[in-house]
Amino acid sequence: MSHLVISAATKTFGAFTALHEIALTAERGDFVALLGPSGCGKSTLLRIIAGLETPDAGTIEIAGRDVTRLAPEKRNVALMFQSYALLPHMTVTENVRFPLRMKGGLPRTDQDEKVEEALGLVQLHDLGGRYPRQLSGGQQQRVALARAIVAEPDVLLLDEPLSNLDARLREDMQVELKRLHQTLGLTTVFVTHDQTEALALADTVVLMNAGRIERKDSPEGIYRNPGTVFAADFIGGANILTITVRRSEHGWSGTLADGTPIPLGDFSGLAPGRHRFMLRKEQVSVSPSDTGLIAISGTLEARNFLGGVTRSAVRAGGQQIIAVGDVTEPLAIGGEVTIGWRREDLVPLAETAAR
Ligand SMILES: Nc1ncnc2c1ncn2[C@@H]1O[C@H](COP(=O)(O)OP(=O)(O)OP(=O)(O)O)[C@@H](O)[C@H]1O
């Protein structure tokens, strides 16, 4: 049986349904990201696992135990909020010791050992005597993390753990979180609205949309084949093309929004008609020299230098298509360009997730 099992969990607030019959499982040691736009229900789902909210229907099982009606402290889970919620009148050591005291049953010397170990894991061994106000934001965040892991929870729950940090620190902490997860193997569920963070950290990405799970897959899986228009759009980096698909004795072909004809790969599962396709921005090249590409002409509308790559916005095929890549030639805004992609780079999308 899976380590965490959420079955048909529904949560309403008055007339509003925040979660619709959520079914989700995670294995021991999984690192799961709950990803989605503001208001999609990610925090509510996390709070239901933590026991801070009770579902109206459905069950939550952790390590083989039905915890649906158990109080948060009886679940052996740890929840870390974005605000860290450190106790200001306690030192770092006392803050980290707090869950062990609450849990009880561990002699003081064993507590000391565990606190030391947790502070070591987040690289704060020297700061145990300080108070939270004497720490930087990043250090406070590490203390909160040490406090969350010290009691070896069955599930570690992180609600937007990095959102209060500046970009640089965030990247460092991403590396840190991943390392910590690899060292401890704690089953971890974390909430984020940042798709790059979800892709960088998790082994499983659960994309939520309006109280439902839109898609659950590995980071690579959801990136390469998001499945739906919403997922392709949210995971980022995707052009979404509307193509009218036709089939003749010569194979599949299509027309873009303005009638521009293009050849297509083999989409044997697709009915003829209008469909939407994903075309990743990094798979579109501007003024391609490779003649094997599907090439259409367009007008360069904008160009942004992003450091390692350049982002070009081209009006072509009746819509704007974005290309991100290495462009060396100087091209004039408003000028004619050719863009190209490989036939297999077009990935069909469903309008909505199958329910
Ligand atoms: N206590 C509550 N009472 C009424 N509505 C609530 C309550 N808690 C959450 N909601 C609503 O449920 C929906 C889901 O909220 P939730 O906090 O889970 O979203 P979220 O995906 O975590 O969003 P965000 O990224 O903005 O935190 C929202 O529309 C929210 O307004």
TrEMBL record:
Query: Has the keyword Hydrolase been applied to this entry?
Result: no
InterPro entries this protein is in?
A: AAA+_ATPase, ABC_SmlMolc_Importer, ABC_transporter-like_ATP-bd, ABC_transporter-like_CS, Mo/tungstate-bd_C_term_dom, P-loop_NTPase, Transp-assoc_OB_typ2
Which domain of life does the protein's organism represent? Bacteria
Please give the Pfam families that the UniProt record associates with this protein.
ABC_tran (PF00005), TOBE_2 (PF08402)
Matches recorded under SMART domains: AAA
ABC transporter domain boundaries: 4-235
User: What keywords sit in the KW lines?
Assistant: ATP-binding, Nucleotide-binding, Transport
Q: Does the keyword ATP-binding apply?
A: yes
> What family name appears in the similarity comment?
Belongs to the ABC transporter superfamily.
Name of the protein this chain belongs to? ABC-type Fe3+/spermidine/putrescine transport system ATPase subunit
Species name for this entry? Rhodobium gokarnense
- Lineage of the native species? Bacteria, Pseudomonadati, Pseudomonadota, Alphaproteobacteria, Hyphomicrobiales
